[in-house]
Write a structure and sequence with these properties.
alpha/beta; 3-stranded antiparallel sheet; about 45% helix; about 20% strand; Sec-Metab_Biosynth_Hydrolase
Length: about 250
């Protein structure tokens, strides 16, 4: 075997060793990737619950300028963690963790009312396959970004939150670049790593049946919660329970 082959074999062995270690070690790091038309602030209650249970929680504030930018932002946060991480996503964030989950320091994936794509699929492909409620999504003047009309936010996104919370989420939403929604997945991490999925049964942003179908084909461990798309904010205790369940299962 020549030196080049020996070198490639050594790199492959080192990478597989790191990945195995990430899945075998105790998982105490939770990295959350928020969805589009929202930001990370809605995860505060769930974060406080998980931290009270002994976990270290970090929220990625991805720019949603492109899928590649968001995956890179997520990898930067993963690489800051001490030990393996459990990646958690909401909505569009599911697209992000499906790619970023290939980072060898990621032990597993949790999809919270999130897109869980197959290779070659985009968010637009999935959303159009089983339409949900009519969302009042609008374009910015330059035609490059999308946002949810604040007046429709509570009804379309967060129907089970108090009005003041839904209004705050509407005003703090991160606009999404059209190209982020059109980008296609190349290498789904759920094919090689264990995943969990939360179906929000009253979701008007993603069809609950689509959430079920995506979870089924990924062989995810599924939990159903009677909540809106903003299930992470309206039912933080139940969402934290699923995340903790995943972390404990990966730590065995």
């Amino acid at each position: 075997m020549n030196r080049r082959l020996i070198s490639l074999a050594a790199i492959a062995f080192a990478t597989s060793t790191i990945a195995f270690a990430a899945q075998a070690a105790e998982v105490k790091n939770i990295v959350i990737v928020h969805g589009a038309l929202a930001d990370g602030s809605g995860w505060r209650k769930a974060t406080e619950i998980l931290e009270g249970r002994g976990y270290t929680v970090t929220i990625v504030q991805e720019p949603i300028t492109s899928l590649a930018d968001d995956v890179a932002a997520t990898n930067r946060v993963i690489d800051l963690q001490d030990g393996p991480s459990l990646l958690v996503s909401h909505s569009y964030g599911g697209m992000v963790i499906t790619e970023a989950g290939n980072n060898p320091h990621v032990a597993g994936l949790v999809y919270v009312a999130a897109f869980q794509p197959q290779a070659g699929e985009s968010l637009l492909d999935l959303a159009s396959s089983k339409p949900a409620g009519s969302m009042d999504i609008r374009e910015t003047k330059d035609g490059k970004y999308l946002y949810l009309d604040p007046a429709a936010f509570a009804n379309d996104f967060a129907g089970d939150l108090p009005k003041e919370e839904a209004d705050f989420m509407a005003r703090s939403q991160v606009f999404a670049a059209k190209q982020a929604f059109a980008a296609k997945i190349t290498d789904p991490a759920w094919k090689t790593k264990k995943s969990w999925s939360i179906v929000a049964t009253h979701d008007r942003s993603i069809n609950p049946d689509l959430e079920r179908d995506m979870a089924k084909r990924a062989n995810s461990d599924v939990s159903e919660i009677a909540a809106s798309h903003a299930v992470f904010a309206s039912q933080p205790e139940k969402v934290a329970d699923v995340i903790e369940k995943a972390a404990k299962a990966l730590s065995r």
